[in-house]
């Protein structure tokens, strides 16, 4: 089930402020395509000035259509999207490792890159003009998502892909908060730590340690954005940090501001 942004805003920093300036709607992929695609998302805005939205991406590839079509690899650092005037963008958020069968080479080769769909996903490129035209014509977002889904469906491989086992482990790391160490995740997959690291580099584009850390930061940011007050020491313990200071250092390094300040402005 695709959760609405009101229930899951992970990755959107200061979501309350952002959602006052843009609208974000999500749509599910069709059966079969959902082996590799997590969701489609449509963001629309109409602003009198420039708004900067800071984002911490999931460990996934996004294919984004606005004025052009691009393939965005996993971004390991916070990035900023500048919105101004009136516009819309449609994104395909793949599952962790979900883009590997379509790229045909390790996802680590496109980590922290943004490249044209024509170069990195040429099989989808023929659909690009119709999708961009639909965005400019104010076609309903669900219909645009169906257009992209229909283009993806015949590209989905019939046979199970090696990356799908890694997808399962990455998604397990996202939902099981008792998994705090790479060794624990490797054991759940019946792999050595080195085998897990190689699989994540190839199929996801980042390390399993990075994935585990990213979801802990998501948890902390979501709690800060939704709670009136946060017991940071208790939260640090819940998330497996050695102490509150460790959480504070990591949160500040990743998000760009200390957790207490983030909470006050969320």
Quick description:
The chain has 266 residues and is α+β, with helices and mostly antiparallel strands. The chain has helices at 15-18, 100-103, 117-120, 128-136, 141-152, 163-175, 182-188, 193-203, 208-226, 232-238, 244-255, 259-264; strands spanning 22-27, 37-55, 62-65, 69-72, 79-94, 114-116.
Task: Explain the overall architecture.
It is a single chain. Helices cover 41% and strands 20% of the residues. With 266 residues, the protein is an alpha+beta fold. The chain has 2 domains: 15-155, Immunoglobulin-like, CATH 2.60.40; 163-264, Arc Repressor Mutant, subunit A (Orthogonal Bundle). A 6-stranded antiparallel β-sheet has the order 1-2-5-3-4-6. β3 and β4 (69-72) form a beta hairpin. α4 (128-136) runs antiparallel to α5 (141-152) and α6 (163-175) packs across α8.
Topology, element by element:
Blueprint: H1 15-18, E1 22-27, E2 37-55, E3 62-65, E4 69-72, E5 79-94, H2 100-103, E6 114-116, H3 117-120, H4 128-136, H5 141-152, H6 163-175, H7 182-188, H8 193-203, H9 208-226, H10 232-238, H11 244-255, H12 259-264
Helix pairs in contact: 4-5, 6-8
């Amino acid at each position: 089930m695709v959760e609405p942004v009101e229930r899951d805003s992970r990755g959107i920093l200061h979501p309350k402020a952002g959602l006052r300036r843009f609208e974000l709607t999500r749509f599910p992929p069709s059966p079969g395509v959902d082996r590799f695609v997590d969701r489609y998302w449509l963001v629309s805005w109409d602003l009198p000035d420039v708004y900067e939205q800071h984002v911490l991406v999931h460990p996934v590839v996004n294919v984004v259509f606005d004025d052009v079509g691009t393939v965005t690899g996993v971004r390991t650092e916070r990035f900023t999207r500048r919105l101004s005037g009136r516009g819309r963008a449609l994104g395909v958020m793949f599952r962790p490792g979900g883009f590997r069968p379509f790229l045909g080479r390790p996802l680590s080769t496109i980590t922290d890159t943004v490249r044209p769909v024509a170069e990195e996903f040429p099989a989808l490129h023929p659909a690009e003009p119709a999708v961009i035209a639909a965005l400019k014509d104010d076609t309903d977002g669900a219909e645009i998502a169906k257009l992209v889904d229909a283009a993806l469906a015949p590209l989905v491989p019939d046979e199970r892909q090696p990356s799908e086992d890694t997808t399962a482990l990455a998604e397990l790391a996202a939902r099981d908060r008792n998994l705090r160490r790479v060794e624990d995740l490797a054991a759940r997959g019946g792999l050595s730590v080195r085998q897990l690291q190689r699989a994540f580099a190839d199929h996801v584009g980042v390390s399993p340690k990075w994935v585990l850390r990213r979801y802990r930061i998501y948890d902390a940011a979501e709690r800060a954005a939704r709670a009136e007050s946060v017991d940071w020491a208790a939260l640090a313990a819940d998330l497996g940090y050695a102490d509150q200071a460790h959480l504070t250092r990591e949160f500040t390094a990743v998000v760009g501001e200390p957790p207490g300040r983030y909470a006050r402005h969320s």
